[in-house]
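Hey Z.,

So I finally got round to the DGJ thing we talked about over coffee. Here's the setup:
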Amino acid sequence: METITLQTKNTTYDMAISPVGHLLHLYYGPKTNCDTSYRLQYYDRGFSGNPYEVEGDRTYSLDVLPQEYPVYGNGDYRDNAFNIQLADGTNGCDLRYKNHRIINEKYSLDGLPYVFGNEGEEAYTVEIDLADDIIGLEVTLRYGVIPEKDVITRSAVIKNNSDSKMIITRAFSTSLDLLHGDFDLIHFHGRHEMERLPQREELNRSVTSIGSRRGNSSHQHNPFVIVCDKKTDEDHGAAWGFSMLYSGNFKFRGFKDQFGLTRNMMGIQDDMFDYPLEPGESFETPEVAMIFSGNGLEDLSHKFHKMIQNNVIRTPLKDERCPVLINNWEATYFDFNHEKLLDIAKNAKEVGIEMFVLDDGWFGQRNSDEAGLGDWRVNEDKLGGPLRKFSDEINELGLKFGIWIEPEMVNENSDIYREHPDWAFTIPGRKPIRSRNQLVLDFSRPEVVDYIFEQISNVIDSANIEYIKMDMNRSLYDIYSSVLTEQSFGLILHNYTKGVYRFLEMLTQKYPHIRIEGCSGGGGRFDAGMLYYTPQIWASDNTDAIDRIRIQHGTSFGYPISTVGAHVSAVPNDQTGRTVPLNTRAVVASSGTFGFEFDLSKITEEEKEEVRYQIDNYKRFWPLIAYGNYYRLHDPEKDTNVASWMFVSQDGDEALINAVSLDKHGNEPVNYIKLRGLEPETQYVITSVTKDDDAPEPFISDGNALMHSGIPLPIISGEYQAWQWKLDKIDTIRRRNEVDKEPSEYDIESIDTKETVA
Ligand code: DGJ
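And the result:
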């Protein structure tokens, strides 16, 4: 049997073309160089039919064999990845192999985000043409390979070569049949203000299906999932990750078939999809990036982090630290004026903050969420003059200036809606579903996108803007585009998402020097598709540090820490009413892009001093936080006493450990944190970063002791205390002292080695 094999540094993906031309899946796992087609076994299975061409062979059935792109129409009764409806009302197709080619670069997508190969980096594409000549349908499966990163991407191009219209009722991007074994699915569910909480459940005979029908990838489910062996944990076992580069409706479906094969499929949401394909037209599915690791969830996360940082995020600013910012939202909400804003900015400057971000409420009649959205004209009364004057004032304070926008939305009480009511999604004759008093603009229409872009662009051009927060504050409904004669839910919503991407493409092309932070009521659109355009995303509207520990922990499975928008806010917290110490709020927010979200004139001089220290620390540790390997040490979904996580630099020379105590108990035992990612026999100096009288003195220990026995957490009265420690290899310190002649932070010889943890 002819096979097609994709090789990455550590993995192999194997397919076979069956004698009658079906593309079968053979293997995706640790690297192998052998022909894996022996895995296919053929038996006569009752009620599993056979294609006509195999004549009397009752052992060849597509209902049993593992497939690359399972369709309805060739005898596979299982849930499948692709369905098409023909003009006569019949369903289905039978795709047969035609051709394949290897191209020496990673393919790209038209108007959609994709994983790209970097200059000098090996990357290639395998395109496999399948067709059903009877109905005139062509499907090209595309596989993009970035060998060094173990990344394999998938997307399909579906073309109608017939004379009649076809309707695509389902077109997923990927399908992976795992021949045998028991697997769990880890997915990330949530809600507004509590996003991406991991849930692990068995994939079994019933179909497990998660996804979004909200027009954004959503707070409720995330287009990143992991399928793993039942015994897989952080540092052992097989895990397959699927990250969809798409910010609209999506779906994952996984289940075990009658003979124990597990099918995993992911792609654009098919509920109500009905995507029309006229003769000659084609449809390109969004891309799903897959990575396999045989070394557990931690290694899988590290690989996805690297892929997103190096092969998804595009901005030329990606290697620069986001300036530590103050955002006025939780400080003022809509209630601000020129004086109040300047006061917040001045106080921010005093503690070392580097950028002021003006959030919602600066335009039109936007004094509450009831009006003004869509009128992108500066409210000069509120800002004390034109935006240029205001941004100059901010710049004169020594701060950069950033601004909030929400291009896709409109209030009915706005000039733009009064002029163009047909630009908003509403179904004729029906009253629309309102959400946060706003409707959604029909971004499937290029003229709407162009108009909004021009308005916002005029504002950007009028001032010195170096950062934009692009928000999106409701789910889509009432899907009806007034320019179409035939309404198709799938077409409109897909074109809407492409409209958002076009807006972002124009924004990033015209303003490459502006850093954009994605946002959708916090983390409603936290996906790899958005990260192609925006290097960071506001992770949640929940700024409570304790909830954030869970949100950021869940986010870390699929997304690098450098992408996580995180701020310190006031206490009691606006979302939960909880009071958490300032140090803890900063420790949690510093595992992200680090900013502030409250009026610093309201804190004491002593607290301001603490904030200064925290900002300096963040700047000092940023390279480690952004580019180090991230280790989840405790699972906050299970451990109620302590949360902890750490960063280890790529060269292994230094590390930063973070811990927060959660539940408190009387006469409580000591909690220990077992470290990870260290060299077993190397000696390290452990120093407290936290300024605290109870903080342990620096001590020396080796990787073995630190990883197997751990560091004890001081017992301090009061909930939610946080600590940070820095680890340096002794040799590195010696080198710095002796060779580099850098001023030493440590006098190693004075540290009592007897106090090491063993
Ligand atoms: C939702 C965002 O997530 C908040 O941070 C803030 O920008 C508001 N929208 C403003 O309306």
